[in-house]
Amino acid sequence: MVNAKHGENRFDVLRLIAAWLVLFSHSYPISGASVGDPLTQIATLDTLGGVGVITFFALSGYLVTLSLQRNANLLVFLWHRIVRIYPALIVVCVFSMLVLGPLFTALPAGEYFQRPDTWRYLWSASGFVVVFQLPEIFNQVPLARVVNGSLWSLPVEVRCYLALAVVSLMPAAMRYKALVVAAGLLAMLLLRPPAVPQHEAFFGLDYQHTKLGLVFALGAVYASWGDRIRPLFWPAAYLIGLAAALAAGTPVSTACFLLGAATLVLWLGLHAMWLPRIPERMGDWSYGLFLYAFPVQQVLAHYGMHKAGLVPYVILSTVIALAFAALSWHLVEKRALVLRRWARTQMLPAAAAIR
Question: Within 10 A of 21 (CB to CB), how many other CB atoms are there?
Fold first, then answer.
């Protein structure tokens, strides 16, 4: 597959930019700003953090589908996803409960650890449920008691992985199945009544699962169609973006925005060789930045750093969160990826023996 190797694409830098956009966008509510980030001030389609999440899901849908096509064994595919997602997630959740909680709660340490909601926070490490609060933590900041608001999208992504695995078991070529799924999610988005709250299900999915599932499915469509569709990326992104502008304020505008954004992100990743390249020895800090940015920003807000102004607050948050991201990559994520070899040495021979 063209541009699939590190150095022949710019996926790493796009993921890092996406994680930073989430940090930057969260700086507004965490600092108690009366306005949203710059994108919300000029358009109502999404926040800059939302654009970052869309970027993650478009790239994830593309790359994970390529991974599934390379690894026909479904157990190996799922194991690869587990070792990429869960080790760092478990560490940040345990760190938040055992370190941040006792340091920043208003409760005595003994009472803090006796509270059931303290231990309930560990459900966030499951990847399926997110518990946002620890007892009496960060009481004096604008977003009181919220530990890590960024985690809300992880259950959606895990479910996208599982949905892709289920779809792969169905008959027919992946490119046709991906098209059908994407078309179905697009129809659900367009038909969703505006009066239905985002957290309520419509045809079995809430708004965020429909929206991000569509973006993930688009990544799968582009991956499975490959060279047949890649030359259309740039003109398609332009035309879809134009349609989004013309249909402003309607569900069609939202759908066009998602289609155009996903297409543009993949075009940039595959063709924008003018973007800076992250050295391979540095590793992939994007996931760590995503995981640690929100807690770092809450700690800084606890000490009043958000009152110094948005620019110094964002800069300091970025520097500290990147330091945690580097530690997460080199001490946890990179070491966990070694476990992929276990799948090749244990799962594949076992699967072959069963056949």
Answer: 22
State residue 296 phi and psi, 5-degree precision.
Answer: -60, -45
What region does 7 belong to: left with phi over 0, alpha with psi -120 to 50, or beta? Answer: left
| Amino acid at site 348 | L
Rounded to the nearest 5 degrees, what angle is found at the Cα of 181, between the Cα atoms of 176 and 187? 125
Residue type present at position 96: S
Indicate if the pLDDT at residue 175 is higher than 80: yes
The SS3 assignment for 203 reads coil
Q: Residue 146 pairs with which residues in a beta bridge?
A: 133
User: Quick count: other Cβ atoms within 10 Å of Cβ 297?
Assistant: 29
Assign residue 205 a region: left if phi > 0, alpha if psi is -120 to 50, beta otherwise? beta
What sign results for the dihedral spanned by CA atoms 159, 161, 163, 166? negative
Query: How far is the CA of 196 from the CAs of 43, 153, 189, 190, in angstroms?
Result: 21, 20, 12, 13
CA angle 15/73/181 to nearest 5° reads: 60
The one-letter code for the residue type at 66 is L
Q: Exposed (0-12), middle (13-18) or buried (19+): which is 150, by Cβ within 10 Å?
A: buried
User: How far apart, in whole angstroms, are the C-alpha atoms of residue 222 and residue 242?
Assistant: 21
Q: Are the CB atoms for 90 and 125 separated by under 8 Å? A: yes
Strand ranges, E, within 23-170: none
pTM above 0.85, yes or no: yes
Return the DSSP state at 84. Answer: H
Q: Are 61 and 219 in contact (CB under 8 A)?
A: yes
Q: What is the pLDDT of residues 285-343, one digit of tens each?
A: 999 999 999 999 999 999 999 998 999 999 999 999 999 999 999 999 999 988 877 66
pLDDT, tens digit (0-9, with 9 covering 90-100), for 258-287 = 888 888 899 889 888 888 888 888 999 999
Burial status of residue 131 (CB atoms within 10 A of its CB: 0-12, 13-18, 19 or more): buried
Measured CA to CA, the distance from residue 336 to residue 49 in angstroms comes to 28
Smallest CA-to-CA distance from 71 within 159, 164, 176, 171 is with: 164
